[in-house]
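Lecture notes, part 5. Sequence design as translation. It can be helpful to think of inverse folding as translation between two languages: the language of shapes and the language of residues. The source text, in structure tokens, appears below.
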């Protein structure tokens, strides 16, 4: 049975920050008189990200703020970890607004070099969708890099009201694709969010782990129909 639709994760699979997150946070913090080491901010960001519960909202009730409030709490936690005390609300408001606007810009992100050739090839005879734990900023980012033309739909967690690996994300993708799970393949870099989520939904999974496993290998597997059984993360 041939594949019908391919679902692509975004961050870590199609795009990544153009500059290290710790360096970007340090740059913007410096504008507010805070001189914090890039490495300390990077560690704080990673720790805060791991500790943060992914946003989940009641069915059919996506957040009115496009999960902006969730991102604000994350930024607040990052700086509280580094500084040892919470930022003043007025400072946090300004700093967060600047960071949020920065990461809405296409130039804040770069496309992995293997992405465009893979999408050019696969879009010839497959339906491609984005399935990402992100918000509405993602569409303008992808458009700014000329990637939107490859995708018939972009499904994002802030509009679904749940984040991968929650079943609602994969259900939303399957509904848009209009096909059975075993006719779909999800491509992502996160073993839990992408791999476990796809497996629970009965969707084939391709694990991106550059440089060992890139989208070059994905194209080869799809073209040789070697995707069967790719249900468990890490395969």
């Amino acid at each position: 049975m041939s594949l019908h639709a391919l679902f692509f994760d975004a961050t870590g699979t199609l795009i990544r920050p153009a500059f290290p997150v710790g360096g970007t946070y340090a740059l913007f913090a410096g504008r507010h008189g805070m001189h914090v080491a890039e490495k300390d901010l990077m560690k704080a960001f990673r720790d805060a990200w791991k500790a943060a519960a992914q946003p989940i909202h009641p069915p059919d009730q996506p957040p009115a703020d496009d999960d902006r409030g969730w991102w604000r709490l994350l930024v607040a936690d990052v700086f509280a970890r580094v500084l040892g005390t919470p930022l003043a609300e007025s400072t946090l408001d300004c700093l967060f607004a600047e960071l949020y606007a920065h990461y809405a810009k296409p130039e804040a992100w770069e496309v992995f070099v293997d992405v465009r050739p893979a999408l050019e090839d696969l879009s010839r005879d497959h339906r491609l969708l984005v399935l990402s734990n992100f918000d509405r900023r993602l569409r303008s980012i992808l458009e700014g890099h000329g990637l939107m033309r490859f995708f018939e739909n972009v499904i994002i967690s802030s509009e679904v009201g749940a984040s991968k690996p929650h079943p609602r994300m994969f259900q939303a993708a399957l509904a848009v694709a209009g096909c059975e799970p075993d006719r779909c393949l999800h491509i992502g870099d996160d073993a839990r969010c992408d791999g476990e989520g796809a497996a629970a939904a009965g969707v084939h999974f391709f694990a991106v782990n550059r440089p060992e496993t890139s989208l070059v290998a994905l194209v080869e597997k799809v073209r040789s129909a070697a995707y069967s059984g790719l249900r468990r993360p890490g395969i």
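The translated text above is only one of many valid answers, since several sequences can fold into similar shapes. The chain has ten helices and seven strands.
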